[in-house]
Structure formats: C-alpha cells, structure tokens
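Limitations
The structure tokens in this dataset are predictions for the assembled complex, not deposited experimental models. Users should treat interface geometry with appropriate caution, especially where small molecules or nucleic acid strands are included. An illustrative entry is reproduced here so readers can see what is and is not provided.
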Amino acid sequence: MTLDQSFQQQVLTLLPRLRRFAVGLAGNPADGDDLCQITIERALLNQDKWQDGTRLDSWMYRIMRNCWIDETRSRSRRSETFVAEDAGMSVGGEGAQEATVELSNVDRAMQKLPEDQREAVLLVMVEGYAYKEAAEIVGCPVGTLNSRLVRGRDALMEMLEDAA
Amino acid sequence: MSTPDITPEELAAWADGELTGERGDAIAAAVEADPALQAKIDAHRALKSKLSAHFAPIAEEPVPDHLAALLQTPAPAAANDQIETPEGSATIVNFAEAKEKRTMPRWGWIAGPALAATLALAVFLPGGGTSDPVGPNPYADTQLASVLDSQLVADQGAGMDTRILLSFQNEGGEFCRAYSAGETGGIACRDDNGWRMEATGDGVDGGNTEFRMAGAAEIMAAAQEMAAGDALDAEAEEAAREAGWR
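Predicted assembly:
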C-alpha cells in the first residue's frame, strides 16, 4: 500500500513534465492530455514492472512515447478519409478560423518533423536529457539519437528562419 | 584547424556538453578559431533556449484535475480489479470519464478542436434520460434542416451561424450529421420524414476549458456510438448531398 502510494505520488510529481512532453509529441494540449491519461493508465497497470530504485522518469517517458507511437499508428490507419494534418487540423474548409487550433510557428514546425526526430528534439532540447538517457527512452543507439537530433534541429532552424 | 572533419553530430554533441576529452578539446579549439563554427554553436543554443522557453509554461501550469485524480485514488489493487471487471466500479478513475477521454483522440483529431473552441454540449440521448430534451417534435426545424440539407463541411465559411462538424452513417445506413450552432448543437439523422434529432445539447459557453472539453468529448462519444464507420470525407459528403442524404 505504501509502495503503491509512493509510486502514484512519484508519478504525480513527474506529471507536469510528462504533460509538457505529451503536448510536444501530440502537438496540442487536448491530445497531449489524452496521451497523458493513456500513459498514466498504462503505467498503473504495469507498475509491478517498474523496479524501485531505477529511474521512474525515464520509465514513464518510455511508456508515453510508446503510447504515442501506438496512437499515431492507429491514427494513420483510420485517418485516411479524414482531413490531413497539414490542413491545419481544422474542420471545414479554408477560412474555418474557429475550428483551427492556434499553432505558433514553433508548434507548426515541430509538427512537421518526423516522429523520431521530434521525440529526439523534445527529449534533449526541451526535457534536458543526456543523449544516453534519451537513447534509452527511445530504445535506439546513442549515435542514432544524435543524428536524429541534428536532422530535426536543422529542419527546425530552417523552418523557423523561413517563418521569421 | 580545418573544419570539414568535424561532423554536425559532433558539433551538436559538443554544444550540448556531450563531447569531452581529447575530441572535445579539439572541437573547442576549432570553434574558438572559426567564427562560422561559433555561429553554428550559437544557433544551436539559441534554438534550445527557444524550444525550452516555448514549452516551459506547460510544465508550470497546474495539472488538470482529471489527470491528477488518476494518481490520487488509493488504489493498490485497482489494476487487477480493472482487468477482471472492466465495467465494474471505477477504482482507478471514473469509468465514463476514462472512456470519454479515450474516445477523444479518434474524433478529436478532426472535430474535437472545433468543438472545444466553440461550445460545450450537454448531450441528451432520447430514451437515455428521464426528460424529453428534444421536445415534442423530434425533427429539425426548417432552418436547421436547410443547413443540414445543403451545407458541406468542406465549404462552410467562418462566419456561418450553424456549422456542420462531421457527417457519418449510422448502423441503419441513414446519414447523420453533427452540428454546432452557437451555444447549442446536436446530431440529426435523415429519415423519410426529415432530419430526426438524435441528440441535442445546450452549450455552456463558460470559460472553463475542462467543461468544454468534456462536452466535446460527449457529443463525439455519442456520434461515435451511432456511427457505423468513419466520418464521411469531402467527396462522400458531396455525393450524399447529391443523393439527398438518402
């Protein structure tokens, strides 16, 4: 009981950061909070697999990015008849202003990155993970993480320069 | 020192403090000697500050209650309970809320943001409640019917009072359309007599995002339960209109 409480308490402490990562991955707060919820539920169901003494934050981030990958896969399967993401995530035609999520330049540029580059950028440049830690969360070699980061970073710089 | 032997990966790693030792020293010396390299390091760090500044406010915001609540229930056995009785008492979380939230990504992808931004709906399904919220006439009035007949999601403008959120077919093969009109909204399906109201809602145009989101999720959940497949795309919607929604 006390162990479980402390597990939940620890996740609760991490939650603001997890939310930040979720919103970054999903591209908007509504989907980000859904991702958070799904992640928390999965973590609670699997909490016996977390080894006390190991880093809970990396474990939670890993669950979250896995949940997100699942979600994007099922989205790409079911969204073929839906409006494409590039359409500004809007319902309706051009000029449907109220239906368009307001995205800043940074959000828009982030959403254009491939998933693997976006998560690398978020983990290192926003969440502040060392390359090795980020690579463990993602489950790839450090060199791969490093090169995804550079590609993502270069693409962002170019897009943000264009936007400026 | 010549620069071509320093890869972009190395440079980024060095800028992030990931590259030390001899190689790190060599790069440090090269950066010192080469303004072009220095500019790249600066650009890397500037992007890093820009990104952290952009995302920092999210981590500063209070966590939404429904997320915190997931972790505040004393539920050591909850995980097991939920597997055994998925429909049982919500030990982890209010089940309806969990379901409602889980259905959001699917429809939220396209319609959620629209709903969230414009209205909150308290959805009443006929037969599901004690009152008769649809009123004595279960069919859409002339004005609404005309919108439902003619308006396509693809070409409605920003200024329209009534907006179609999405169209789909129910299990009986009838065409149904979810709409919002200012502070109200609902779902109507076309039958022999006209647009039969399946659900209506009163909007609560309050400032509380959570309520708005809950309302959005509810009407989406209602539409999802009625829908036999995916929402119609623009082409299918136009074809359905040509056919008079029959």
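Some entries come with short summary sentences. For this one: Residues 8-60 of chain B form one domain.
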